[in-house]
């Protein structure tokens, strides 16, 4: 009996030791991973796969493919998945905290500083808004080349942009993605799907199904509770949970979803929104931590905590829910075709966001256009780091005085 207790204690120490290890390694990545989701995957590969060999190359590629398929922040979901496979569910939580917390704290400081300055009236704020123009244009350009490379998908992207711009509703983007998925299922089914090596995950299918039920249950129940209670913090949670549940294509695509949630409701001005988005480019870690800035501007520290947890919660539920089924799903040609259509629509949704609200509220004079074009070239052709582009935009804003 005594030996069994000692073995169990040793197992517990080993498990929690692995959780702490995941937390420390992910925190290191959280303070050094600049450059956006694609760059994050490179940092992860170097640290988790090449240096520490927590996964083999095939399993890592499979996990990246899964997280690209799911809605949500792909790089954060990859980190959560690696944490789960290394140290169980608590390992996934530790990986998320370590990778996310540094940028959350930085954006909280920025939000409170901005509030102390009067909410965004400083001259350098206009420079940050021009940075947002360049960064989103850069994202549209890169994603368009990859996700809409042919006539059919470019057409789908333009239609998606038109619907999003002309139909101002919280459900417009959801409808666009559903229609795009149907179009992809019809036009992009592949007759043969290549074989993939299987990988093993420490999650039961029962737990996975429960996570799917919670995911869809919250998506359906939260709007009802929001309307029936009128509780402001619940409304905040529901808005950010819905945004985190419906984002396909990575961090930049959350911009139009969040804009539709916080500006028409009067929670935030367009200027403060775009200022925070520009500032988010200066910090390492996931772009979804933009939610921490928005929550802080809306409801202080408690708002930041609620918004951050709400926007990342779907990522957890979806990764846990999908991992045990991914081996069979990714061999399905219909699923692959639907994903092709959704990805093309994502390009169109982001293009619409580039025009409204970013372009319409920022490019106010020919000089604004020239500076935004220079910032875009710095990103696309000079390959300069985003933080340097942000500093350049802020300096231009200061020179306006």
From TrEMBL:
Record's keyword annotation contains Repressor: no
Membrane topology: Multi-pass membrane protein
Superkingdom per UniProt: Bacteria
Keywords assigned by UniProt, alphabetized: Cell membrane, Membrane, Transmembrane, Transmembrane helix
A GO molecular-function descriptor: chromate transmembrane transporter activity
InterPro entries, alphabetized: Chr_Tranpt_l_chain, Chromate_transpt
Transmembrane segments: 20-44, 89-112, 124-142, 154-187, 207-225, 290-323, 335-355, 361-379, 384-400
Cellular localization per UniProt: Cell membrane
Regions annotated as coiled coil: none
Keyword Amino-acid biosynthesis in annotation: no
Gene Ontology annotations for the cellular component aspect, listed alphabetically: plasma membrane
Family per similarity comment: Belongs to the chromate ion transporter (CHR) (TC 2.A.51) family.
Designated name of the protein: ChrA protein
Organism: Brevibacillus formosus
Lineage of the species this protein comes from: Bacteria, Bacillati, Bacillota, Bacilli, Bacillales
């Amino acid at each position: 009996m005594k030996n069994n207790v000692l073995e169990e204690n040793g197992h517990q120490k080993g498990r929690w030791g692995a959780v702490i290890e995941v937390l420390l390694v992910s925190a290191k990545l959280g303070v050094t991973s600049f450059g956006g989701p694609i760059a994050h995957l490179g940092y992860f590969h170097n640290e988790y796969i090449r240096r520490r060999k927590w996964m083999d190359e095939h399993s890592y590629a499979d996990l990246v493919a899964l997280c690209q398929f799911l809605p949500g922040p792909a790089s954060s979901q990859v980190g959560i998945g690696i944490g789960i496979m290394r140290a169980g569910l608590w390992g996934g939580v530790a990986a998320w905290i370590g990778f996310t917390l540094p940028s959350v704290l930085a954006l909280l400081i920025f939000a409170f500083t901005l509030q102390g300055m009067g909410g965004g009236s400083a001259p350098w704020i206009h420079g940050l808004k021009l940075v947002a123009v360049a960064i989103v244009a850069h994202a549209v350009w890169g994603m368009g080349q990859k996700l809409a490379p042919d006539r059919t998908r470019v057409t789908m992207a333009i239609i998606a942009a038109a619907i999003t711009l002309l139909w101002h509703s919280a459900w417009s983007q959801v409808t666009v993605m559903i229609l795009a998925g149907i179009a992809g299922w019809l036009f992009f089914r592949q007759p043969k799907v290549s074989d993939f090596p299987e990988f093993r995950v420490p999650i039961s299918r029962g737990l996975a199904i429960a996570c799917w039920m919670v995911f869809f249950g919250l998506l359906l129940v939260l709007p009802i509770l929001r309307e029936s209670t009128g509780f402001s913090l619940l409304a905040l949670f529901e808005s950010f949970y819905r945004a985190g549940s419906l984002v396909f294509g990575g961090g930049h695509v959350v911009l139009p979803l969040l804009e539709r949630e916080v500006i028409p409701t009067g929670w935030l001005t367009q200027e403060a929104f775009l200022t925070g988005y520009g500032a988010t480019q200066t910090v390492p870690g996931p772009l979804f931590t933009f939610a921490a800035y928005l929550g802080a501007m809306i409801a202080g520290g408690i708002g930041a905590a609620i918004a951050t947890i709400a926007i990342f919660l779907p990522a957890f539920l979806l990764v846990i829910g999908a991992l045990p089924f991914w081996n069979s799903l990714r061999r399905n040609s219909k699923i692959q075709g639907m994903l092709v259509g959704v990805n093309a629509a994502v390009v169109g949704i982001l293009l619409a966001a580039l025009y409204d609200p970013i372009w319409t509220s920022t490019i106010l004079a020919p000089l604004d256009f020239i500076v935004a074009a220079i910032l875009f070239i710095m990103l696309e052709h000079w390959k300069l780091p985003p933080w340097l582009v942000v500093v350049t935009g802020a300096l231009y804003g200061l020179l306006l005085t």
